[in-house]
Design a protein that fits this description.
This protein is 26% helix and 16% strand. By secondary structure, the chain is of the alpha/beta class.
């Protein structure tokens, strides 16, 4: 059997807020993909910020092991670009192509794709470039990486997701995301997100449609995902499930079919090992994840007893680590702060609402422990309750073992940014305030 083609198609800031995860957000193309493939209900990124999350998926390592502890466009970078999945695939005979957003390197040329489709003024949109590639009878096997800016907020937004003239959703019949109250501001914000999700779905559908029209769907593994949670307060750049939870839908050979739903915990770092197993490629020694194939084939019920998440830098320095089991979530902060790092929350209507009501000055704790069975929104911190002392000790130990095993730089104290990186003041208010260069 020939090695499968790989279509890695991904978005910005979408979390699980699409139709097949049960939300009133019409995304029929993504829904159809789920009905034909496998939907992972408990999929998590390895870091709820843009470049660290993508780097983890594409290297098969947690962000600090990959060296990506901040944002690529602000001067952070992979420690070793040869560990990006394109190099493993190229050695196995794959043609590698990028269309659209990558956000793992300051320049796409640094990564090592065989072909990088032009972007910017006068260039074809990513979905059209990818569709044309698929219809061109490409040499096989191929790895096609297609990235979209949706559902990222515009930078900087004047009000919600879009500045005028832009799409705007109908806010009358919208439910805001779980951490937020139901108000006119949060409904307006969410309505604009829904409009952005609709644009994303149409673009993804162009690519998926071209894959079918070219007769390539049967031997192509589609990996449809996003980097992290949506860009609302207490979601993106946070280690609760609101920040770590991501859509992950896979369709193709090897058992990724039939409209199956998987409830086992999986991480983005499990994608690279899965590709190796499916394509019969020797897995590189640095991989930290596990193949999903035993799950989708029904051979096991779980592959992970625990998954981990981290933040070091986003717009500003905010070192945090987390471990999650099926029942418990433990989050620890390493900066000694008791006040929020506001530049790490994207501007928008929901953020403005909370700021007007004192959110900035609400205290934060060094440690959090949540019972996910009875507190799925992670709102009630049990870390100070002696009833849960044994659980807290266990979760602390799990996190420490992982940090030691992965040589987390936080074990040696505050983590410096690379020379020339741009960061915001931790006591600032917005990510769009002036940055300082280190």
């Amino acid at each position: 059997m020939p090695r499968p083609n790989i279509l890695y198609i991904h978005s910005h800031d979408t979390g699980r807020y699409v139709q097949p995860y049960g939300y009133a957000i019409p995304t029929p193309g993504i829904q159809r993909l789920a009905e034909e493939g496998v939907l992972f209900r408990q999929a998590f990124c390895a870091g709820p910020t843009c470049s660290p999350s993508r780097a983890a998926l594409l290297t098969g390592m947690c962000p600090h092991s990959a060296g990506m502890i901040g944002l690529a466009h602000r001067g952070f970078h992979l420690r070793d670009f040869s560990r990006h999945i394109v190099h493993t695939l190229k050695r196995a005979g794959y043609t590698t192509v990028l269309a659209g957003v990558q956000h793992v390197a300051k320049s796409a040329g640094d990564i090592g794709y065989d072909t990088v489709m032009p972007r910017g003024a006068g260039a074809r949109p990513a979905e059209q470039a990818a569709a044309e590639f698929l219809r061109s009878r490409p040499a096989q096997p191929f790895f096609l990486d297609v990235g979209f800016i949706e559902t990222h907020r515009l930078s900087p937004p004047q009000d919600g997701y879009f500045t005028s003239p832009g799409p705007s959703g109908d806010a009358r019949y919208v439910r805001p995301p779980a951490p937020l109250p139901d108000t006119p501001e949060t409904r307006r914000d969410m309505a604009d997100f829904i409009a952005a999700a609709g644009i994303l779905d149409r673009k993804m559908s162009v690519v998926l449609g071209a894959l079918g029209e070219a007769g390539l769907a049967g031997n192509t593994l589609v990996i449809c995902t996003t980097d992290h949670g949506i860009a609302f307060p207490q979601m993106k750049c946070n280690l609760t499930d609101h920040g770590l939870g991501v859509m992950l839908i896979m369709r193709g050979p090897g058992g990724f079919d039939g409209g199956k739903v998987c409830d086992a915990m999986v991480s983005h770092i499990d994608v690279f090992p899965t590709v190796c197993a499916l394509a019969d490629i020797e897995a590189p020694p640095w991989l930290q994840g596990r193949s999903l194939l035993p799950l989708v084939r029904g051979e096991v019920q779980r592959i992970n007893d625990e998954i981990f998440g981290e933040v070091t830098y986003h717009a500003a320095y905010e070192p945090m680590r987390a471990v999650r089991t099926e029942r418990w979530k433990y989050i620890r902060r390493f900066d000694g702060r008791h006040r929020r790092v506001m530049p790490n929350t994207d501007d928008g209507l929901s953020r403005k609402l909370w700021l007007r009501h004192g959110w900035r000055d609400m205290p934060i704790a060094e440690e959090y422990l949540f019972d996910l069975m009875f507190d799925p929104n992670e709102a009630h911190n049990l870390a100070g309750d002696p009833t849960y002392g044994d659980v807290l000790m266990d979760m602390r130990a799990r996190l420490e073992r992982w940090m030691v095993r992965t040589d987390d730089p936080l074990l040696r104290g505050p983590v410096p940014a690379p020379a020339g990186a741009r960061v915001n003041d931790v006591d600032g208010l917005s990510p769009y305030e002036p940055e300082k260069t280190l």
